[in-house]
């Protein structure tokens, strides 16, 4: 039986075992997870012998929906352990909606988020200098980001400053912020003089617009982190106009932590070896080199994840990986070929410029392209370019909008094909 493929470096998996058995570090982590969380033994018992790849692949993948349905308490022998951990600050929690209709509660050990963030920084040539020294950072996160990790409720500016980080967003939705609210955000950004600006790409694009309209520059910014959602080249260009600093694509999730990091739009994302084992699962035969990912977290005490199906798709590239986005947000032409937001960016006319967009399928051969821009794209064949991308017989209608609302989770989609039956 052949070994499963991983995005990690071989050294991260540990020394190879006997023929057809798992590398030592991977097997050790799997057995730790089984010993810590009873959910896994109830789903699929393990034998005491060295694990073979055939046995590993029989371990059922864990989905977000299963976590929601079973509940976070299923990761603990005694639910009272969670209550005691929260009371004495050994644990903290976060609620996230992700791709599920119901909220998912994530229990994490105190300090885990900060520790795995430092490890992610160390894995990035751009962010490495900030990993182990004090620095100032401003964060503009989605409104769905809640709990003590993103304390952005209606508190005055000094009360949203934690360990050098200022959370810029309040309880309003940034896509619909009033000009007065953008005034506040821009002033706080200037007052903080951060070295790192981090945020959802749509929100950062709109922040760039707000800063430009006010003639504001923040020369202290040395790195921009695009996270929480999928960034388009359009976002990156608009952000760079206001905040000309290297851009980093930092991918992960609340429940799994940070998994990949790379320079934005360079197709060089690498697995963050110290945070997780990332299994590459072939997705569709028609698109070789494109994979689902199953994540096994490392060193977690509370809610460790084993073969966790994140719902995201990555493509292997010569210098690393390209994060294509959510499975549900990718489109397949009738001939089986794949369309992702990268293809939309490449198809848009060279002179086209917008702050945000969404390409939505409304029928078998009908699509709407909604975009937020300062002017209508007259004289540019946006519709024809996108129709040519999507396939023969497709018609695209383009509409300029004042704003585009996110989903209930606070997240945006750049590409919305019709849901599969």
Radius of gyration: 22 Å
- CATH architectural name of the domain at 79-274: 3-Layer(aba) Sandwich
Distance separating the two termini: 35 Å
How would you describe the shape? globular
Number of strands: 21
**Which CATH top level class of the domain at 79-274 fits?**
Alpha Beta
Q: What fraction of the residues are assigned to beta strands by DSSP?
A: 25-35%
The average pLDDT value, as a whole number, equals: 91
Number of helices: 12
Q: What profile does the largest beta sheet have?
A: 8 strands, mixed
Spans of at least 5 consecutive residues whose pLDDT stays below 50 are none
Q: Strand order across the biggest sheet?
A: 5-6-4-7-8-9-10-11
CATH topology of the domain at 79-274: Rossmann fold
The class by helix and strand makeup works out as alpha/beta
Helix content: 25-40%
Defining key terms:
single chain; 421 residues; alpha/beta; Rossmann fold; GMP Synthetase, Chain A, domain 3; 8-stranded mixed beta sheet; 5-stranded antiparallel beta sheet; 26% helix; 25% strand; globular
Describe the structure.
This protein is α/β, with parallel strands linked by helices. Among the domains are: 79-274, Rossmann fold (3-Layer(aba) Sandwich), CATH 3.40.50.980; 330-416, GMP Synthetase, Chain A, domain 3, CATH 3.30.300. It has twelve helices and 21 strands. The protein has helices at 10-13, 24-36, 38-43, 53-58, 64-70, 79-87, 112-122, 179-192, 201-213, 233-242, 341-347, 382-390; strands at 5-6, 91-96, 104-109, 137-140, 161-162, 165-167, 196-199, 223-226, 247-253, 257-263, 270-271, 276-282, 290-297, 308-317, 320-326, 331-332, 338-339, 356-363, 366-372, 395-401, 415-416. The strands form five sheets. An eight-stranded mixed β-sheet has the order 5-6-4-7-8-9-10-11, with helices on both faces. It has a five-stranded antiparallel β-sheet with strand order 1-12-13-14-15. Helix 12 (382-390) links the parallel strand 19 and strand 20 (395-401).
